[in-house]
Amino acid sequence: MQGITGKRVLVTGGASGIGQATVRRFVAEGARVAIFDRDKRAIDETMAAIPEIAAAITVDVSDDVAVAGAFQELGKTFPQLDVVINNAGISVRHDSFRSITPAQWRAVVDTNLNGVFYVASEAVRRMDEGVIVNMSSINGLAAFPHYADYNASKAGILALSRTMAVELAPRIRVLALAPGAVLTPMQRAEYTDEMLDEVNANIPLGRHADPSEIGGFLVYLASDEARFMTGQHYIVDGGETARAAL
Questions:
Q1: In terms of residue numbers, what domain contains 15?
Q2: Which of these is catalytic: 150, 191, 220, 234?
Q3: Would residue 241 count as lying in a domain?
Q4: Tens of pLDDT along 209-246?
Q5: Which positions make up the signal peptide (predicted)?
Q6: Cβ atoms of residues 25 and 40 within 8 Å
Q7: How far is C-alpha 244 from the chain's CA centre?
Q8: pTM, full prediction
Q9: CATH of the domain at 197
Q10: What is d(CA 131, CA 133) in angstroms, rounded to the nearest whole number?
Q11: Alpha carbons 237 and 202: distance in angstroms, whole number
Q12: Is 150 an annotated catalytic residue?
């Protein structure tokens, strides 16, 4: 893709799932890539699998002080950034809205929404121009039962991304990606085979996305081929939301 070779890219949550697939694609396109992830073991495994990664830092994005420190460390490798893929996130399936505790709510919102803000806030200080893509979800566009905290956090990302895009234009483009069902390790751990089949039955293409399909679109959004795109969210869901007006 045009304009990716040599770019300095940060991918949060880069040691598994969509994040790792995105790292692989950026590396294949000739970018220089660093990752943030809170799982040290997953980082070590990812570094062994993708030795071209320029830097890997263990950090929990829900901790603003830790994020600031991680960016200080990243500065030794990348004094400036060109692309940030704000991907780190968690999901917890609850019995119902009534069962969510304040601690569970904070854990999800602190990682998914606050973490996006903390990373973006530090990143823009290190970007003369570039692209930030924040990871939302179709859960931010419609009510999916059992995930009130996750849904709220992903809806917040959409509003945050629009505001950032307006304020940071024209030098920094800001976008949000809203995937549907993606077969990541996090998704696999939450769902039985029967539950996965039930989800697939509601997707016109009949399956979950592979993380590489999301990673490829993220790289496109960061490329010069998408240089007139900002302030919007993009749905990649196999047609799932085509069944309802969003």
A1: 8-97+108-235
A2: 150
A3: no
A4: 999 999 999 999 999 999 999 999 999 999 999 976 55
A5: none
A6: no
A7: 24
A8: 0.95
A9: 3.40.50.720
A10: 7
A11: 11
A12: yes
